[in-house]
Amino acid sequence: MKKKLSALLLIIALLCSVLAGCTTTGDQKNIDTDVTESNDTGEKTDTPSGEPKLADEQILTFVGHNDMMTLDVSLMNDEMSALVMYAVNEALIRYSRGEIIPGIAEKYDVSDDGIVYTFHLRDANWSDGKPVTAYDFEYAYLRLLSPETGSTQIESFSAVLNAMEYARGEITDTSQVGIKAVDDKTLVITLTKPEPFFLEEMAQGINFYPIRKDYVEKYGQNYGSSPESFIGCGPFVLTEWAQGSKITMEKNPGYWDADSIILEQVVEYIVADENTRVGMYDLGEVDGIYSISAVQTVKYSDSFRTRAGGTLQHLVFMSREGAVLSNKNLRLALSYAINRDSIVKAIASPGTVVADSMIDPEISLDGESIVEKYPASNNVHISGDPAKAKEYLNAALSEMGLSSPSELPAINYVCLDSPTHRAYAEALQAQWQDVLGVNVDINIMPVPQAIGSLLAGEFDIFLNGMSTGVAPETLLDNYTLHNPNNYAKWSNQEYTDLFNESMNADNLEERFTKLQQAHQLILDECPVSPLWLPGTAYLFRDYVDGIFYGRQTGSIEFIYAKILEH
């Protein structure tokens, strides 16, 4: 039950972020919002030294549309929870403004063979004054990996020695897992083999924070469900969580780097209706809006910005035996018929980029894009290929013993009940009808029911949005045999073998070559079809200085922000 609940939370988090155009990734109009403020006369309000003056009141307010789901690090997997956790807790290392910086770990050492990471903790305290120790990290990591916890985030630790074996229940002795607190100030993490993405995974991942064991024992299943049942060690302290309404965070005077934190308070209002959110901004009730729709960008054409993150939206085709889309040629026909570029231009939020790969092109090693260095031949045409689509359709009809598209069984597209998802579904439906003469039935459902259909496999087509992660195999892993996130129910032993060979490779060249072959195979077989890397538009006043959006979580990094005089 725990595993099913965690999976449900994950999918709701990833897909609900699209409901108001709030998914991540895309071109950046201005990710870093450092600005020089001007007053009403157009004159800069700089200090004599040239630095902008700070406002007397250092309170940042903004309005968003989604509440966070939990403050339990072991179960956390949604964008808004990540936003708050980033502010109220501190991992060993932190990803800030595109760089890895020290967190609770003052420094770390890596063994010559690249396998053993030793983190040396600084003197830091929880918000109640108790010291943060290496045992708090050991406890948090092992708790997440425990089969009893049912976390959906165990893959974040896949590089760690015996972590997956422990998570799968194949071993029960935690001393065999490569996570060990040597003493209060030293945490040693041992990998199975060198992993070039491991530090970035730790820094960008949302599940590497420490947890206080006494709080978990005191609050049990209610741990992390309220400010009272949670404690952190970050730059801010959560003081209010009126669920579905308001989140308030206050500066933590006991934070180890408190002198670098300027804001005294951060308030997020949670409002479902976009018109209300925009009204609050126009009336000066808030300093910013977490995201705005493409329609609203016309109104704020001179002031909105776009942000980038790591999410890919792709179609999942139900591929199990007996399903109408178990026919590969029919899946390919539907994919080739899509003009992704026209849909993005007509519907998507600014910053959205058409995708032709299941690997995020932003994922790189030593400055070189993995997907560019190890490309898979392109079976995804951004403007579509009607002629090729019809060839695949005719092949499919022949294999199925049908003479025309009208004889195809009903195709059920399960669609989230949101304006954005409706618009995407209707655009795809129209293209499939116009190019192929194939009718696809759109079945619009409230979000919980739609997610239930996804998990139960009761669909033929589903628009899915998932994090691309920091390593190139993140999304590809989902479609291996027996993976719980293989919503296509695609069963391909060759693909799974190639993927596993990639993960077990002794060197990077072999790893990425095998991954390239697996990537090619999934594009050839088309159980999924990449569509676009969504962008999001947002608004913040010019006097809000130092806002940054993270790539992996897509969340606001406001801990070093400040309010300028205005």
Polypeptide structure, described:
The protein has 566 residues and is of the alpha+beta class. The protein folds into 2 domains: 1-69 and 234-308 and 536-566, D-Maltodextrin-Binding Protein, domain 2 (3-Layer(aba) Sandwich), CATH 3.40.190; 311-533, Dipeptide-binding Protein, domain 3 (Roll). Helices cover 29% and strands 20% of the residues. A 7-stranded mixed sheet has the order 8-9-10-1-11-21-12, with helices on both faces. A hairpin with a 3-residue loop joins β8 (236-242) and β9. The longest helix is centred in the C-terminal third of the chain and has 18 residues, at 419-436.
What keywords describe this structure?
D-Maltodextrin-Binding Protein, domain 2, Dipeptide-binding Protein, domain 3, 2 domains, 16 helices
Sheet with the most strands: spatial strand order: 8-9-10-1-11-21-12
**Integer count of domains:** 2
Major sheet characteristics: 7 strands, mixed
Cα(first) to Cα(last) distance is: 52 Å
CATH architecture of the largest domain: Roll
**How many β strands by DSSP?**
25
Instruction: Give the CA-based shape.
Output: globular
CATH-wise, what's the superfamily of the largest domain?
A: Dipeptide-binding Protein, Domain 3
Main CATH class of the largest domain: Alpha Beta
Structural class: alpha+beta
Q: Topology of this structure?
A:
Elements: H1 2-16, E1 59-64, H2 79-88, E2 93-96, E3 99-102, E4 105-110, E5 116-121, H3 134-145, H4 163-167, E6 179-183, E7 186-190, H5 198-204, H6 213-219, E8 236-242, E9 246-251, E10 265-270, H7 274-282, E11 288-292, H8 294-299, E12 305-307, E13 311-317, H9 328-336, H10 340-347, E14 353-354, E15 364-365, E16 368-369, H11 370-373, H12 386-400, E17 412-416, H13 419-436, E18 441-445, H14 447-456, E19 461-467, H15 493-503, H16 508-525, E20 528-533, E21 536-540, E22 544-545, E23 548-549, E24 556-557, E25 562-563
Parallel strand pairs: 1-10, 1-11, 17-18, 17-19
Antiparallel strand pairs: 2-3, 4-5, 5-7, 6-7, 8-9, 9-10, 11-21, 12-21, 13-19, 13-20, 14-20, 15-16, 22-25, 23-24
Helix pairs in contact: 1-14, 9-12, 15-16
